């Protein structure tokens, strides 16, 4: 089952089940968003897919019209954007280390400069997939922001005017809602563009935290249930309507050095990430970057990410946020 969140004709948030092969969305009755659908499923102790199937009535909308009208929303939002936490992990895929090394080519003086990254990658290979019920090695982890940085599918990824670069990162994301007792519940998975400033990161690896404080996008569809072991897709950049760059990317545990369960454990082991009512979007990493191939995206370019089983591609144009004078800090 795949679900889409969109703005209905009355301006309210609606949820639709994708009707495979029909070009329509079956609107879920009595559902004002996937966040509330998840809360209802948690309260009822029922699987999300069962509740969604039960609420999918006779009302349908034309999927293409929703897309054309720009009414798609990210497949998980929170009524208060400050309570949707956007985070991620790196060096989790079998090609992650080589992609990281390619991104830093020409800037390092010796192989010793990448020792920490390579060491963490090897740790993941050796201990990232522990036996069930056991904790494996913890991954690289980063914070991106809250719900205020999430761009809806089709809408611009507006990098700050002080950015040195804006580049795509095609990834799978896990979407979660924390229940009343602090238990994290996974709704499912979606395609994501984690989007980072790779030039800033390349200056010094300790700038990684800065490079991640950029907008992102995920969706448009929520794949309810488990993630396939092998996910194969394509990441591309279009410029003036023509493909500038394209490459295949793979994900899923068959192509990862960490299990999904291990990545989830090392995120939600922190009590502050188990606050009842919060929602989480967690990016699981990638090994494919246009930046590593020497591509520099420009405002107006469109990032497209697609993968079999995830429905419509995720597309976002690159833009630069309107600037302004730097903030003046005042003493109270």
Summarize model confidence as the mean pLDDT. 92
Separate helix tally: 8
Radius of gyration: 20 Å
Class from secondary-structure proportions: alpha+beta
| Helix-strand pattern | EEEHHEHEEHHEEEEEHHEEEEHEEE
Beta-sheet strand percentage? 25-35%
**Helix content estimate:** 10-25%
Largest pleated sheet: 13 strands, mixed
Q: Which term fits the overall shape?
A: globular
Euclidean distance between termini CA atoms: 53 Å
Uncertain parts = 106-111
Number of DSSP-assigned strands: 18
Keywords for this entry:
five-stranded mixed beta sheet; 18 strands; 13-stranded mixed beta sheet; globular; alpha+beta; 8 helices; 20% helix; 332 residues
Give a written overview of the molecule.
It contains 8 helices and 18 strands. It is α+β, with helices and mostly antiparallel strands and 332 residues long. The protein has helices at 34-44, 48-55, 63-68, 96-103, 115-127, 198-203, 208-211, 260-268; strands spanning 2-7, 13-19, 24-28, 56-62, 72-73, 84-90, 140-146, 150-151, 157-159, 170-178, 184-193, 216-218, 221-224, 231-239, 242-251, 279-283, 302-307, 314-320. It starts with a strand and ends in a 12-residue tail after the last strand.
Short summary:
With 332 residues, the chain is α+β, with helices and mostly antiparallel strands. The protein is built from eight helices and 18 strands.
């Amino acid at each position: 089952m795949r679900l889409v969140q969109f703005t209905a004709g009355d301006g309210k948030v609606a949820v639709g089940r994708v009707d495979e092969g029909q070009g329509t969305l079956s609107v879920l009755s009595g559902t004002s968003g996937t966040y509330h659908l998840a809360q209802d499923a948690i309260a009822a102790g029922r699987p999300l897919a069962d509740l969604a199937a039960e609420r999918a009535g006779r009302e349908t909308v034309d999927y293409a019209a929703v897309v054309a009208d720009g009414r798609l929303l990210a497949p998980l939002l929170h009524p208060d954007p400050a309570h949707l936490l956007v985070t991620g992990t790196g060096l989790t895929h079998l090609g992650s280390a080589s992609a990281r090394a390619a991104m830093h080519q020409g800037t390092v003086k010796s192989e010793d400069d990448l020792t920490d990254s390579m060491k963490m990658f090897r740790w993941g290979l050796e201990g990232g997939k522990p036996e069930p019920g056991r904790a494996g090695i913890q991954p690289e982890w980063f914070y991106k922001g809250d719900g205020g940085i999430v761009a809806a599918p089709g809408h611009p990824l507006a990098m700050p005017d002080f950015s040195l670069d804006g580049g795509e990162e095609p990834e799978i994301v896990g979407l979660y809602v924390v229940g009343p007792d602090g238990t994290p519940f996974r709704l499912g998975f979606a395609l994501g563009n984690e989007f980072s400033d790779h030039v800033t990161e390349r200056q010094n690896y300790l700038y990684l935290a800065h490079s991640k404080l950029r907008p992102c996008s995920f969706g448009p569809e929520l794949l309810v249930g488990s993630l396939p072991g092998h996910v194969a897709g394509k990441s591309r950049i279009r410029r003036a309507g023509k493909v500038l760059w394209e490459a295949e990317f793979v994900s899923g545990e068959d192509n990862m050095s960490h299990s999904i369960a291990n990545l989830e454990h090392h995120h939600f082991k922190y009590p502050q990430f188990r606050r009842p009512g919060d929602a989480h979007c967690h990016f699981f990493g990638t090994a494919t970057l246009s930046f590593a191939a020497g591509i520099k995206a420009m405002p107006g370019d469109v990032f497209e990410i697609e993968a079999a089983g995830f429905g419509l591609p995720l597309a976002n144009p690159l833009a630069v946020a309107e600037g302004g004078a730097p903030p003046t800090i005042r003493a109270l």
